Amino acid sequence: MAPAEIRENGEDPLPVGPDELNAWRRGFTPQAEIWNGRLAMLGLSLGIGVLLIVRLLSSSLTAAQ
User: Fold this and answer.
1) In the prediction, which pLDDT does 14 show?
2) In angstroms, rounded to a whole number, what is the distance separating the alpha carbons of residues 36 and 48?
3) What angle do CA 30, 47, 65 make, to 5 degrees?
4) Under a CB-based contact definition with an 8 Å cutoff, are residues 23 and 16 in contact?
5) Which segments in the chain show pLDDT lower than 50?
6) What's the pLDDT at 18?
7) Secondary structure string (H, E, C) spanning 1-65
8) Under a CB-based contact definition with an 8 Å cutoff, are residues 30 and 21 in contact?
9) 21, 35 Cβ separation under 8 angstroms
10) Mean of the per-residue pLDDT values for the chain?
């Protein structure tokens, strides 16, 4: 069953195509929230990757001395 907040007007939600979900729309829209989540995960992944690479490089440099 769909959550109550989606069915406020008593109608079932209409299915949305992938082009609609991937549309770049500004404002407080479901598309903007999807892109916000995607970009947040990208930033988190890049940040952790950079920290891991810096930590590995700094430990290898101190071990070589």
Assistant:
1) 74
2) 18
3) 175
4) no
5) 1
6) 76
7) CCCCCCCCCCCCCCCCCHHHHCCCCCCCCHHHHHHHHHHHHHHHHHHHHHHHHHHHHHHHHHHHC
8) yes
9) no
10) 82
The token duo for 44 is 């988190």
Cα dihedral sign, 13-14-17-20: negative
Instruction: Name the token pair of 63.
Output: 């071990």
CB 13 within 8 A of CB 20: no
The pTM for the full model equals 0.63
Tokens linked to 6: 């989606």
pLDDT of 53 reads 95
Written as one letter, the residue type at 56 is L
